[in-house]
Amino acid sequence: MASDVAKFAAPLSQGFGYGIIIGLGFAFALVMIFITWALKRYQHEVQTSEMFSTAGRSVKSGLVAAAVVSSWTWAATLLQSSAVAYKYGISGPFFYASGACVQIILFATLAIELKRRAPNAHTFLEAIRARYGTAVHVVFIVFCLMTNILVTAMLLTGGSAVMTSLTGVHTAAACFLLPIGVVLYTLFGGIKATFITDYMHTVVIIVVIFIFAFSAYATNDTLGSPGRVYDALVAASKLHPVEGNAQGSYLTMRSKEGGIFWVINLVGNFGTVFLDNGYYNKAIAAHPVHAFPGYVIGGLCWFAIPWLCASTMGISALALEGSQRMSSEDVTAGLVLPFAAVNLLGYSGAVCTTLMIFMAVTSAFSSQLIAVSSILTYDIYQAYINPSAKGKRLVWISHMSCILFAIVMAGFATGLYYAGIGMGYLYLLMGVIISSAVFPGAMTLVWKGQNWIAASSSPVLGLAMSLIAWLVTAKKESGVLTVDSTGANYPMLAGNVTALLSPVIFSPILTYVFGPQNYDYESMRAIRKVDDTDVAAAAHIDIELIPGEATMTNAEKEEEEQRKLNRAALYSRTLTIGMVICFLLLWPIPMYGTSYVFSRKFFTGWVIVGIIWLFVTTFGVVVFPLYEGRKSIIRTTRSMVLDAMGRKSRALDGQKGYDESPSGVATPTEKEEVVDLVDLVNLGHLGDPWELVGNTHSKLEPEEAAPVQAVPLVEDEYRVLYQ
After folding, report:
1. pLDDT at 106
2. How many CB atoms lie within 10 A of CB 83?
């Protein structure tokens, strides 16, 4: 009956919604313009094609972890996890979080292998092409682009639905306006912009989740404590028990439908991680020794976000709704979280939700832009259209790719809205479409035997099998093929499992029928960086000064990095397998098998652990990146202050970072002190000529020949050459 359905009216004005979408988008773009200018002026970071796509391959583990958390925190992370909590109870948040964090942890192993096998690659697909050739390359381009299209469609459909529900902004308008600010700051800052804005977005999302959690479990007049929430869930279980749950309770891990969702979630998310070039982009951008810890920290920290968010918002929606239930359409559209937020905090809850979803959509969308632009630039344009293209041309292609993809996806998401296909449907469908390429793609980096026939055929055969399993099951279950029948749990389960597991059979069979390849990985190592000398020349900067662009190599450094990567590869396999066993077996299976229904004390402890875990996440992805980058932050800030005071050389943007003095006779060194890379190239403000050797600089008296260039030796070490 209509009276039994909860009505949800937009609590915010359309003007507020447009202000958030457009105003915040342009604000982030302006911030990134300033940061890009500062990095160019004070740290010689020019937007070459290498810098745009790889950030100089020098990002540290804390910022990698923050970027992974932000990129993996889609609108669906917050909205879909709350929806499954609303439908299945306390098991839903755990099944969502554990079913989506193990892929990030396992991906750490692939990240290490990519850094070892193809240290100069710009995309994962370049490694595919180097090993197998054009046919396999084209197959994986299609699957990777389908992944990016599905993920971006989910972001825009989910984000626009929430904007419409909270502010009344038209869904189609939101689909077209949300990408604008993201495209602007991505164009100016490249992947470095996504790392920096990902960090900012992560901070906002974590703060909002803390606000929700402390409101529901500490300060709210209706709820306000774990005990009251527990009592409300017990009452809800009696009022509308959950079919398939132990005792019909919302307070148990024994949930039949929740378990089915867990498997679908687990299988589908393998595709969206292992086939999303955005995650390979971040692995490539990471410093070689920081890729593995960055992904492990990111995976463990991310777990707390959907777990606590859904355990707060999905559960609060159940506790606060009474006899009026949300409609299935609203639940599928992801409106459980905004419903709970408005009921918990009123107007403030609506504002917090709008900000949080905006951050989740835009941060993940920027990662998709870089992923797609990298594929179109390096795997299509440079590979098949203009192999001799230099940096300036490739940067232009990257920019055009970002703009084109944003326009196409805005139109596609709008079409999905008018077709009645929402975020929840796409979330369940994605594994059916893309997961058949997961196994052959991973084996490219870890199994030398897989041949090109297996690599090209098994994804296609797996896709055909998954579509058949999905549609046949839907027809058998419901008798008709509609959005509702194909979106049910059992058809999606059949399609997802078939997609992931069928290539596990196809690939070995095809490999041994046609003969193993016995690949030596040398062609991957032969991948070379782009020639960005034209971009550096246009910026009047020595190419050697731009991070990640140095052409001089250091054999000892490379050997040491390889040794570290080899050790990390060994550790990663052991550690990731152990953590996967914990998240998928040791923690959930005993609770599922025993049909345990939470007691009041156990539920309280469950909530407290979730809050503590989010505090750990805060340290891992908010505090730790600042600590790792403290020297660079202090140095840049100091340089900006001195520059503003007129005490720094005016030629700091790469032309000559030094004061020039008349030539004279050198005198002995007076003092030595340790100095890092950027100090070595920005010593003009010191007012003296300096001789730079290794990782020390020595003040010379009184009149020395002016330095003419700084040449990188090894990481964070420069030598200045004198005439």
Report:
1. 86
2. 30
pLDDT (0 to 100) of residue 58:
62
Domain boundaries, the chain: 8-33+56-421+572-628, 633-722
Instruction: Output Rg (C-alpha) for the chain, integer angstroms.
Output: 27
Give the pLDDT confidence score for residue 192 in this predicted structure. Answer: 67
Q: Please count the other Cβ atoms lying within 10 Å of the Cβ belonging to residue 94.
A: 26
Describe the crossing of helices 75-88 and 336-345 by its angle, rounded to 10 degrees.
Answer: 80
Element (H, E) at 10: none
Structure confidence at residue 229 (pLDDT): 94
The C-alpha angle 252, 106, 94, rounded to 5 degrees, equals: 15
Across the chain, which distance is largest between two alpha carbons, in Å?
95
**pLDDT tens, residue by residue, 210-231:** 999 999 999 988 898 999 999 9
User: pTM of whole model > 0.85?
Assistant: no
Closest CA to 496 of 269, 272, 270, 268: 268
Confidence (pLDDT) at 52:
53
Half-sphere exposure of 158 (CA within 13 A, CB side): 38
Q: How far apart are CA 319 and CA 228, in angstroms?
A: 9
Cβ pair 291, 279 in contact under 8 A: no
Closest to 66 (Cα-Cα) out of 357, 281, 297, 371: 297
Q: Could you give the CA distance from residue 210 to residue 198 in angstroms, rounded to a whole number? A: 18
User: How many residues make up the chain in this entry?
Assistant: 723
Class of domain 8-33+56-421+572-628: mainly alpha
